[in-house]
Amino acid sequence: MFLQLIMSGLSFGSLYALIALAMVIIYKTSEVPNFGQGEMAMISTFVAYTLLVTYQYSYAVSFVGALLFAAVLGVFLEFVFLRRAKDPNVLSLILITLGFEMVLYGLASWKWGADQRDLPFPVSDFDTVSLGPAVVSYLNIATLLITLVLMFFLFLFFKYTKVGIAMKATQQNAMAARINGIRTNRILSITWAMSSLIGAVAGILLAPIATLDPNLMLDPLLKGFSSAVLGGMTTLVGAALGGYILGIIENLFGGYVSLEFKSIVAFGIIVLVLCFKPSGLFARHYVRKV
Amino acid sequence: MTALLEIKNIETFYRLIYALRGVSLTVEEGTITAILGNNGAGKSTILKTVMGLLDDQPDKGTIEFMGKRIDGKDPEVIVRMGISYVPEGREVFEELSVRENLLMGAYIRRDRDGIRKDFEKIYSYFPVLKERSDQWAGTLSGGEQQMLAIGRALMNRPKLLFLDEPSLGLSPLLVKAIFNIISKINEEGVTILLVEQNARMALNISHVGLILENGRFVMKGKSEDLMRDRDVQEFYMGVRSEESAKGYQRWKRKKRWR
């Protein structure tokens, strides 16, 4: 029972971790929690659905197409809405993200309707393997593996590529980045593309478990955001760990205490973290010397 | 000698504050030019204006670098033309390692071998950076951060290097070391425009000095001449003139250029 709960917790945790990563990447660069993240992922998942079911493309083509769409969508939203903000402060930027969240939600409802659909997926949610006493579906394993691989690539990207380091540099000191010739606007676009893409991966992995409708990401987004707050909004590793911790705690709570109140756990955690360690569990932020 | 940078009559505003009131300046190739002045005279503003860091500034006037107009261009473009800027207060990337900081200095370059060679060169100027190459820049001391900031600017192989108060907050010994390196960099062919409050050190290593007051230049001359000038000595180098020979009446020196 315990191991079983941990395993499915890890699988959900991966999804939370992906959403948390997507939010943190944007938060670090634009200093705004992007509340449109969920709907961006939802729309991208719908694009995958349309390519797959309506146009009958193969899995590879549909998923890659959806991810490309996600990247373009991210760049578009940043370029068209956020960059136009005059003298932006954090609050107005948050309102902008909430604004396009609603616009995207409306668009999805108008284009695809509120019907609940199933996104076909190459890996089955019903075939299972036994890992000791725990029974895990192939989909759970695939989710976990894909997430870990993605995180590994993110790690390599931020550690070894010039663009990745430039992205970190821009996050830390935009003025200094500019005087070194880094085109910060371009970095911002790349950031949004990456974040949107990671969110879309979460959406596509989530849709086969959940049902695909415009509310797909409503709950996962809040959980992902909680994970980010739990781990620390300023650290990628922390956000990812926060996702896994939240997934596991939530599942254990659901299994041993109360299934009905499972969703409350995330918000309880946010409140506790903000009371006791507001920068997040894993924030290892360098404090500027004065 | 040819003029590398030619600033003609620029005027810069911070919203309503009239910061530069018509500043003209020529930086000759191969020299160190020092701009001296009090707090708030507008020294740093000149550099920021030239780098394009102030939106929509300069309000008036032109800036030419190697014969090309650069006023109104973005810093990203200006850096690519060959000007590097060491900002006041260092502004290193605190949560990147020293090595990554230097790598960012070479962001606009593509030649891997050249970059590797320049790493060695910077490490030979500042051996301490090599020791700390994997440490976060934010954990360095102020002097080391200043060295890193200069090293980072050099990684871009600039033709013209702007230094904004390199002595700020450093011990006298470190200031000396940094200024030695600055003259060495200049001898290797980099033209330098230096903004300083530490007039003595700046005039010691520079060829030409200018004095800025309230957004206008009030004096220009060879550095040796400026150092001998009694006004400069009294108001910028802290040399006190003798009190009046009459004994009871104390005369205060008045700036001649006002």
Give the proportion of residues in helices of chain B.
25-40%
Largest interface: A-B, 21 and 27 residues
Q: Biggest β-sheet of chain B: count, sense, barrel?
A: 6 strands, mixed
What is the gyration radius of chain A calculated from CA atoms?
Answer: 19 Å
Order of secondary-structure elements of chain A: HHHHEEHHHHHHH
Assembly state of the chains shown: heterodimer
Order of helices and strands of chain B: EEEHEEHEHHHHEHEHEEHH
Q: For the residues shown, what is the average pLDDT of chain A?
A: 86
Strand content of chain B: 25-35%
Number of strands of chain B: 10
Topology:
The complex is a heterodimer of chains A (290) and B (258).
Chain A: H1 2-30, H2 37-54, H3 59-82, H4 90-112, E1 128-131, E2 134-137, H5 138-160, H6 162-172, H7 174-179, H8 184-206, H9 218-231, H10 236-256, H11 264-276
Antiparallel strand pairs in A: 1-2
Helix pairs in contact in A: 1-5, 1-8, 1-9, 1-10, 2-3, 2-4, 2-8, 3-8, 5-6, 6-8, 9-10, 9-11
Chain B: E1 3-14, E2 17-28, E3 32-37, H1 43-51, E4 60-65, E5 68-69, H2 75-81, E6 83-86, H3 98-105, H4 112-125, H5 127-131, H6 142-154, E7 160-164, H7 172-187, E8 191-196, H8 199-205, E9 208-213, E10 216-222, H9 223-228, H10 230-236
Parallel strand pairs in B: 3-8, 3-9, 6-7, 7-8
Antiparallel strand pairs in B: 1-2, 1-4, 4-5, 9-10
